[in-house]
Structure formats: structure tokens, C-alpha cells
Amino acid sequence: MQRFTQLQQHRDILTRTMRGIEREGLRIDRDGHLSTLPHPLALGSALTHPHITTDYSEALLELITGTHTTVESLLRELTEIHQFVMQQNRGESIWMQSMPAILPPEKDIPIATYGSSNTGMLKHVYRRGLAERYGKKMQCIAGLHYNFSMPSELWPLLDFKGDSHQEQQSNGYLALIRNFTRYSWLLMYLFGASPAASKSFLANMPHELQTFDHDTFYLPYATSLRMSDLGYQNDAQSALTLCYNDLDSFIRKMYDAVTQSWPAYEAIGTHRDGQWIQLNTNVLQIENEFYSSIRPKRTTSRGERPITALMERGVQYVEIRCLDIDPFEPIGIAASTSHFMDAFLLFCAVSESGFFPDGGHCAQSQNNFALTVKQGRDPALTLNKEGSRLSVKDWGHEILDQILAYAKELDIAYSTTQYSAAVELQRQKLDNPDLTPSARLLQELRNSGLSLQDYTLQKSQEHSDALRFQELSVETDQKLKNMAQESILEQKEIEVSDMESFDEYVKHYNDSLKRPA
Fold first, then answer.
1. For residue 321, how many other CB atoms are within 10 A of its CB?
2. Neighbour-count burial for 258-270, b at 16+ CB within 10 Å, e otherwise
3. How many Å apart are CA 453 and CA 62, to the nearest integer?
4. Measuring CA to CA, how many Å separate 486 from each of 22, 113, 491?
């Protein structure tokens, strides 16, 4: 309560909260197949463009906003980027589902390319490594990442311990991450939107899904198959249990993961037929390979490793990685979702957040999360709250009651009612599971008689056409066109400035990590 009282006394600072979005989306052709065309030249360089790039595949767009002090300006920019992409690429649409469209054979899924520079080749070879380790299909699953930071002056006011402001801030963000880990099952219930997958995607993969129709598998009460273990088996990562009790422990474990070799990856090797196929044989090639629902982050300079940045300058923001693409929203997220995320993350940051036992292992929370993604809407489901069993509805209401207090503080700070309204909107989903995106999607499939593939193709074309025909201001259109041209020139400058071979560059990159104290 003391921290909440401090927050109330300094609520004006909350208007300097920053948020940003990275939205992934597959480019598809008119028939709903994965695009085999290169990243459109009109969108600029995927290597250097600050807002429009690619993720794993050449066909997997990643649209990135800047950081914003309001939800309104954040979603305005995200909408403008979508409009520009669709207007410059009229023959294709963005797939409006986290689970992929019709994919070509594994060997024909195009891995993203970034030109001939060492920097670009590093990104490409890293993706080759992902294909070797996890398969290309799994890398085509798309999501939406929500980046969030609180005003730096708030952390000392909330009395987080530390010998420096940097340490107080890092400890504050780690407290946020621990609470997020405890309560993120609720996000899966409220916003999970991938209860089904096309049969063609699963092919010969082992799974426990049921038949929905001739072309669709599903689980009746699932919320987010994307965030389940569906088709994803990896001993190296499952053995990796990072600790969020303190930053030093997190950094040490991450350092070990990116420097210690793994036998199965040693067997693959780094080269095949004289070509690089992975950057190294370590548990993780680089830090970004660690798949988690949330990450502590620090902006890096060119060539700087994320661990080094965290070690030297502490945590700057958190990246939330568990949100599905919202199939009912043209830009993949609703304004109410963004407002709720702000209130939820503020609640996670300020509420008491005890350390995890057993060296930071949080098996109980991970199990609650895993149950919710597969069975979240089952009325008989109970979760483990510190040894007691509670229904999703009852525990969810308890959490929302607490979040509402933080939403009201945000409402006062921003002179709005949208934060409280967003919390109450989620409360309706707890009382009526049919209102959740996962239930709505399944009901739309039943009502339309369409398979997941055909329904999503229809929705994708509708959303993409709507964005394409919305008027983009002349100023914004020109600004984004200039950015595209400038990014192409910047890529060329990087390519001509390389002075060492790629082999030397990879060695320097792998050797660039500073050992934690």
C-alpha cells in the first residue's frame, strides 16, 4: 500500500510512461498462400528501416512504432505504417491470424535476407540456425510485442532498493517481470485469439488437437495455441530456467546460454557445403533466441550485445511477447487492449512482488499459464494460487479489482476514462467466456461455415483493403517514402564500409560478450 500511496502522490509523472508496438504479420497472395516474393522494394531496406522490417521469413513483416506517451498517438502511428505498407503493396494482404497461412514445403519457406553486409548476413545466418534448430514452420507463427517503460524518476519514489538509480530501476523492472509471470495467464484468457490451426500447418506433427472441420484442428477451450507447446519441442531451451530475482543472476544464466555449446547443435555444426548454417553451436546463438513471454530490455548500439547493454546500463524497458494478433482489428490490436496493458503492467510494477523460490524457478506460474492457453475457457478449470485452487473467473476478478485502482490513477493523470473502461470490458469476458476473442473466433467459424484458412483469408483481405483505401496524409505518405529511400541508401553505405570477412565478423561478434562479474 505504501508504494501505491506514493504513486497517487506523484501520478502526474505517469503521463511520461512510454509504450511501443512491434506487430508481425505474414504477407499472403490473393489465394491465401504465403508470399514467395521478396520484401517489397517500395518498403525500403529490411536491414535499416526503423519501422518496416522482416522477422524470420522474407514474407513475415514486422511493423515497428516509435515510443509514445499516449495510446492514441501509438495506435495512430501503427495505423499509418499499416496504411503505407498496404498502399505500396497492392497485390498482397497481411494475414490476420497468429497461426500461419498456407505454407509451401519447408524447404521453400523463404528465410529473410538483409543484403551482403556483415550485419545483414549475421541476421540471415541466425535465421538459418533457427530453421536448423526448430524448423521453418514454427518460425512463421506471428505475434504482437508490447514494449513498456515507466518514467525513470518513479522508481526511487517507489522505494525500490539499490545503490544507484540504475540499480533501483532494474530492480523495479524485475519486480514487474515477477508479477507479470504470476499473472500473465490472465492475458491469455482475455486476449488469446488462436484456439485453432489449419490441418496443413500441423501436417505430420504430433499433437492432441481435435477436428473442428475438414481443414481445421482446435481445442474446445483453448485460448492461444500459439503460446502452447504445440509442435515446439526443444530440449536446449526447456532446460534453460532464467532467474528474475535479480539482474546479476539473470545475466549470468543468459551469458551461459549464449556461450555454452549444446551437443545436438554440435552435431549440426556451423557449416554445410561451405555455407554458414548457424552462428555457433551454443544453447542460444544470440540472446534474441530465448523464447519467453516477457524480456528485460535495454536499447543497444550497433554491434553491441544485449547482455552487455544490460550489464553496463541496466534495464530500460520490458518487452511483452505473449499477445496474439487480434483478428478483429485491422492493425492487430484494439485501443482497449493497449489501455488495459498499461494498467496491468503498472499494477505488476507497483504491487508487492516477492522473490521466486528455488533460485528463481517459477514452475507454478508457468503451469497456470500452460493450462490457460489450452483450457482457459473450461468452466471446470482451476489454477494454483499459492497452494489454493481458484477458478479462472474468481481469481481473474480478484486481479481485475486490483488493476482497476491503477487504471483509475491513469485516468486521472491522462484526464480520461478509457483505462477504467478497458478494465471493465475485460471483466465482462470473465463473466461470459463467449466474449473472449478465442470463443468469438470459433463462433464466427461455426456461423460462417468456413474453415480457419478461408475465414482468415476473407478477414485479411477485408482489413488490408480497408487500410489500403483509408486516406494517408500527403505529409505522412511522403515521410514514409523518404524513410524507405534513405534506408536503402543506408544499407548500401553499410555494405561498402565492411572491412573484414564474414568469418572474422562472426568471430568478433561471438567473442564480444563481456563476462559477468
1. 17
2. bbeebeebeeeeb
3. 21
4. 21, 18, 9
**pLDDT tens digits for range 391-436:** 999 999 999 999 999 999 999 999 999 999 999 999 999 999 999 9
Phi and psi at residue 285, in whole multiples of 5°?
-65, -45
Q: String of b and e for 387-426 (b: at least 16 CB within 10 Å)?
A: eeebebbebbeebbeebbbbbbbbbbbbeeebbbebbebb
Q: Residues 369, 184: contact at Cβ < 8 Å? A: yes
What pLDDT is attached to residue 231? 54
Distances in Å between the Cα of 8 and the Cα atoms of 83, 148, 176, 487 are 39, 20, 18, 44
**Residues 184, 189, 191, 194, CA torsion sign:** positive
What is the bridge-based pairing of β-strands 210-213 and 196-198?
Answer: unpaired
Q: Let me know if domain 2-511 sits in CATH 3.30.590.20.
A: yes
Question: Rounded to whole angstroms, how far apart are CA atoms 40 and 59?
Answer: 10
Looking at this protein, which amino acid is placed at residue 60?
Answer: L
- Which grid coordinates belong to 25? 504479420
Alpha-carbon torsion angle 301, 307, 313, 318, nearest 10: 90
pLDDT at 517: 79
Strand partners, 22: 64, 145
Separation CA 270–CA 249 (nearest Å): 29
What is the rounded distance in angstroms from the CA atom of residue 514 to the CA atom of residue 517? 9
Specify the pLDDT at position 448. 98
Beta bridge partners of 279: none
Copy the grid coordinates of residue 217: 484442428
How is the chain split into domains, by residue range? 2-511
Q: Answer whether 0.85 is exceeded by the pTM.
A: yes
Asked if residues 151 and 17 have their Cβ atoms less than 8 Å apart, the reply is: yes
- Counting as low any pLDDT under 50, the low residues of the chain are none
> How many distinct helices (H) and strands (E) make up the chain?
20, 14
> Taking Cα atoms as reference points, which of 17, 19, 313, 296 lies closest to residue 165?
313
Largest CA distance in the chain: 64
Q: pLDDT, tens digit, for every residue of 457-479? A: 999 999 999 999 999 999 999 99
**Cell representation of residue 386:** 499459492
CA separation, residue 396 to residues 174, 277, 342, 385, 489 (Å)? 23, 45, 17, 11, 51
All 3 cell numbers of residue 161?
532498493
CA distance 410 to 14: 7
Q: Is 470 exposed, middle or buried (0-12, 13-18, 19+ CB in 10 A)?
A: middle
Q: In this structure, what C-alpha cell is assigned to residue 280?
A: 555457433
- Are 81 and 65 within 8 A, CB to CB? yes
Q: How far apart are CA 178 and CA 292, in angstroms?
A: 13
Q: Cα 95 to chain center, whole Å?
A: 16
Q: Tens digits of per-residue pLDDT, 260-272?
A: 999 999 999 999 9
What number of other Cβ atoms are within 10 A of residue 363's Cβ? 12
Residue showing cell 506514493 = 6
Q: Which residues contact 364 (CB under 8 A, 6 or more apart)?
A: 384, 386
Q: Write the single-letter amino acid at 136.
A: K
